[in-house]
Design goal:
Order of helices and strands: EEEEEEEEEEEEEEEEEEEEEHHHHH
Strand content: over 45%
Low-confidence stretches: 1-13, 316-323, 375-384
Radius of gyration: 32 Å
Distance between the termini: 16 Å
Structural class: alpha+beta
């Protein structure tokens, strides 16, 4: 399976398979402070919760420390949640901070104290593990009210990444949530995600995924599945060539009796499917890992062998086996370096015929090599 990732301006194969473990709570606390008026009525309450969790991602263990504060105020006969604020910080095994998030959710009530709406904003910043780039992101959460519950219906995240001092264009990820009333409570049954990002040189990545929660009549999860599709366009800065790849994805979820459901395996493969809008099978891969069209491969072969002809002609060699051996050696080296597979086999066969011909003069050598240029190195031979 072939994929394209640009390193130093060159495309290379890329695939990833990650094993993860469940998120484990290793510490938590909760403190509640109530405020009373002169009549002994609680008119305000503040609850602060802290939690420390760990989760494995391949060979890396991430530790997250979070603090959440819930502020409740008296509204029409009872305490109502007014705002929820919080912050979380994640560090990896090397004790490097990879993510910091600050969030606020605000609830809105009517004059009778009935919940009418909610909104939330999260700001995040940190370091991306794949390329070491720094990112900043803002997530806007939209809620719908059902049966007195504020249900998260959509999250939109705008993210900017800076790598080696270069700021990439803003990417957008949108997640929509679907619910089902089970056991008297609305539970999430589906998450639908779309992602769109671009590069400064015109490259782009677009993805979509669907995560489905299968639940029983009481709302308990009995299975989780996730599908994901995507396309990526990578541009080679040195040549301007455009490489299109498609995402091949699979994942698996499992249930830990103590910690709940989690993704234990994820496989991500970007498969190269076309170059400059042409199917991949119309190109051949050189020994240097570069993809050449049939026309380019023919041109390279012709140029290399033509150079060999010129070197032979300019060497001043007289006729005889010495000139033939020298010319053969040059061409043989070029073929070994630039051709592979069936192309090399056919070229080598022609060179054997050339050696067997025992040309008697440099002019004959040149003419015979030219016949190789004209007849052997055609698109039908170059294509793999």
């Amino acid at each position: 399976m072939i994929a394209v990732l640009f390193l130093a301006g060159q495309p290379c194969a890329w695939a990833e398979e990650t094993s993860t473990g469940p998120t484990k709570i290793i510490g938590s606390s909760r403190e509640t402070v109530n405020y009373y008026n002169a009549f002994g009525l609680c008119y305000k309450s503040t609850e602060t919760s802290t939690m420390t969790t760990t989760a494995t991602d391949g060979d890396t263990e991430n530790t997250t420390y979070s603090v959440t504060t819930t502020n409740s105020v008296w509204k029409d006969g009872s305490l109502k949640v007014d705002t929820i604020t919080g912050t979380s910080t994640t560090k990896n095994t090397a004790k490097i901070i990879t993510d910091t998030s600050n969030y606020t959710t605000t609830y809105i009530y009517d004059s009778l104290g009935r919940l009418q709406g909610a909104s939330g904003v999260t700001t995040s910043f940190g370091t991306l593990p794949d390329n070491g780039g720094d990112y900043t992101a803002t997530t806007t959460n939209t809620y719908t009210i059902k049966n007195g519950q504020a249900l998260l219906s959509q999250s939109v995240t705008k993210q900017t990444v800076t790598v080696d001092g270069q700021v990439k264009p803003e990417s957008t990820q949108t997640v929509n949530y679907s619910y089902q009333l089970l056991g008297g409570i609305n539970h999430i049954v589906k998450e639908t995600m779309t992602y769109s990002g671009s590069e400064n040189n015109g490259g782009s990545t677009n993805m979509s995924s669907v995560k489905t929660y299968e639940r029983n009549e009481n709302g308990s999860i009995i299975n989780i599945t996730q599908t994901k599709t995507g396309t990526s366009i990578s541009i080679d800065d040195s040549t301007g060539a455009s490489y299109r790849s498609e995402l091949i994805y699979s994942s698996h979820f499992t249930e830990d009796p103590a910690h709940g459901w989690y993704m234990d395996l994820e496989s991500t493969n970007w498969e190269l499917v076309s170059i400059n809008g042409q199917p991949l099978d119309s190109y051949s891969e050189s020994g240097a890992g570069e993809y050449l069209s049939a026309e380019d491969a023919v041109a390279n072969s012709r140029a290399s062998l033509a150079e060999a002809v010129g070197n032979s002609s300019n060497s001043g060699s007289s006729s005889g086996s010495g000139a033939t051996a020298g010319t053969n050696g040059i061409i043989q080296t070029i073929l070994d370096q630039n051709l592979e597979g069936s192309v090399a086999e056919q070229a080598h066969r022609l060179l054997e015929e050339y050696r067997a011909a025992h040309a008697e003069s440099s002019a004959q050598n040149t003419a015979y090599i030219q016949s190789i240029l004209d007849s052997a190195h055609t698109p039908s031979l170059i294509q793999q």
